[in-house]
Design a protein that fits this description.
This protein has about 325 residues and is an alpha+beta fold. The chain has eight helices and seven strands; from the N terminus they run ββαβααββββααααα. It has two domains: about 250 residues, Beta Polymerase, domain 2; about 55 residues, Magnesium transport protein CorA, transmembrane region (Methane Monooxygenase Hydroxylase, Chain G, domain 1, Up-down Bundle), CATH 1.20.58.340.
C-alpha cells in the first residue's frame, strides 16, 4: 500500500502515488511517501526514480538487518528496528522501519502497520508545520519509536522487584525460570539498543544537511540530542537489568549452595558422632566365643556409658569449633 501527503504552501493534500508528479511540478512543495508491505518490483522502480540508492533499498527490503544510517548526495537513509509488539514479558516482535529523508521529501517503508508512522500521519491533519521540515519529522518519528521501547523497559523494573521477593519465598523455582527467560530476551534487546545507540551517535555527530543543515549549531540539535539520550538510556537500562537478572540468578544459586552446605554439615556431624558408636556396637556384636567382656556382669551398661561419653565429647568438640 502506498499513501502520500503533499504540502503545497499551506495546504496538505492526501492521496497515493499520483501525488509524486504534483510534487515534482511544485518546486517548494514537501512530500511524505509511506509504503506499507512488501517491496514489489514496481515500488523498487519508483524508489530508484526518486533517487534512493539501490543497496539501501535492498537493505530496507530485508526482514532483519542491523540498524544503521547512511548519507547519500540527495538523501540520508536511516534503518531503525521498531516495535510491532513488546509485551510485559519482554517478548519482542520487531518491525524494521526504513526512512529516506531529503531536502523536500520523506519516504518511509515498513512491512506492517507502524504505530509511530500512523501517529505522525494523523498528526499532520491537525499540525501541518510538521511536514515543512522533513529532517525534523524524521527525527520525531525516530524519537517516538524509541519512546515505545522506553515505556516497556521502565515497566519491567517493577517486575524485577517482584521476582526478587519471590526468590525468597517458596516459589523460587518459577521465578528462576522467568529470570533465565528475561535474561535471554534482554540480551536480544541489548544488542538492538547497542545498534540504536551507535545510530543515534552518528545522527548527533555526523549527519549531513538532510537531517540538520546546521550541524552542531543547527536548529535541530536539541532534537538530535534528545534522540541520542533516549537511545543511550535504553541501552544503559537494558544492560543494567540484564546484569540484575544475572545477579539474582547467581545470588539464588549461592543461597541454595549455602543452604545445601548447612544441611551437609549437619549430616556430616551426625555421621561423625555415630561412626565411633557404630564401631563399638559392631565390635561387641561379633559372634566370637572367646570375648571376656561378654561375661562381665555390668559390661552392657559399661559399653552404653562409653558410647554416651564419646557422643558427649564429640558434641562438645563440635560446639567449641562452632559447627553447632
Amino acid at each position: 500500500m502506498i499513501r502520500a501527503k503533499l504540502l503545497i504552501t499551506e495546504e496538505i493534500i492526501s492521496g497515493g502515488g499520483e501525488l509524486i508528479e504534483r510534487w515534482r511540478e511544485q518546486p517548494g512543495s514537501r512530500l511524505w511517501l509511506d509504503v506499507e508491505g512488501e517491496l514489489t518490483p514496481d515500488i523498487d522502480t519508483l524508489l530508484r526514480g526518486l533517487g534512493c540508492d539501490e543497496l539501501a533499498i535492498l537493505d530496507a527490503s530485508r526482514v532483519r538487518h542491523p540498524p544503521k544510517v547512511e548519507e547519500f548526495n540527495n538523501n540520508t537513509f536511516v534503518l531503525f528496528r521498531g516495535i510491532s509488539s513488546l509485551g510485559e514479558d519482554l517478548q519482542l516482535n520487531p518491525q524494521q522501519l526504513a526512512l529516506f529523508v531529503g531536502d523536500n521529501f520523506l519516504i518511509t517503508l515498513h512491512r506492517g502497520q507502524s504505530v509511530s508512522i500512523n501517529h505522525f500521519w494523523r498528526l499532520l491533519d491537525e499540525e501541518r508545520d510538521h511536514l515543512e521540515d522533513t529532517g525534523l519529522l524524521c527525527l520525531q518519528i525516530l524519537h517516538f519509536a524509541g519512546g515505545r521501547y522506553l515505556e516497556a523497559i521502565l515497566d519491567f523494573e517493577d517486575r524485577l522487584g517482584e521476582l526478587e521477593d519471590i526468590l525468597l519465598s517458596g516459589e523460587a523455582e518459577k521465578a528462576m525460570k522467568e529470570l533465565v527467560a528475561y535474561r535471554s530476551r534482554l540480551r536480544i534487546l541489548r544488542r538492538i539498543f547497542n545498534y540504536h545507540q551507535r545510530l543515534a551517535e552518528h545522527v548527533l555527530n555526523g549527519t549531513g544537511r538532510h537531517l540538520d543543515p546546521g550541524g552542531d549549531d543547527g536548529e535541530h540539535y536539541h532534537q538530535r540530542r534528545d534522540f541520542f539520550d533516549r537511545c543511550e538510556r535504553l541501552y544503559s537500562l537494558c544492560n543494567m537489568y540484564y546484569e540484575i537478572c544475572g545477579d539474582l540468578v547467581e545470588g539464588y544459586i549461592s543461597l541454595s549452595s549455602h543452604r545445601l552446605n548447612n544441611t551437609m554439615k549437619v549430616l556430616t556431624i551426625i555421621t561423625a558422632i555415630f561412626v565411633p558408636l557404630s564401631f563399638l556396637a559392631g565390635l561387641y556384636g561379633m559372634n566370637f566365643e572367646n570375648m571376656p567382656e561378654l561375661h562381665f556382669r555390668y559390661g552392657y551398661f559399661f559399653v552404653l556409658g562409653l558410647m554416651a561419653f564419646v557422643a558427649v565429647v564429640m558434641i562438645t568438640l563440635f560446639r567449641r569449633i562452632r559447627w553447632l
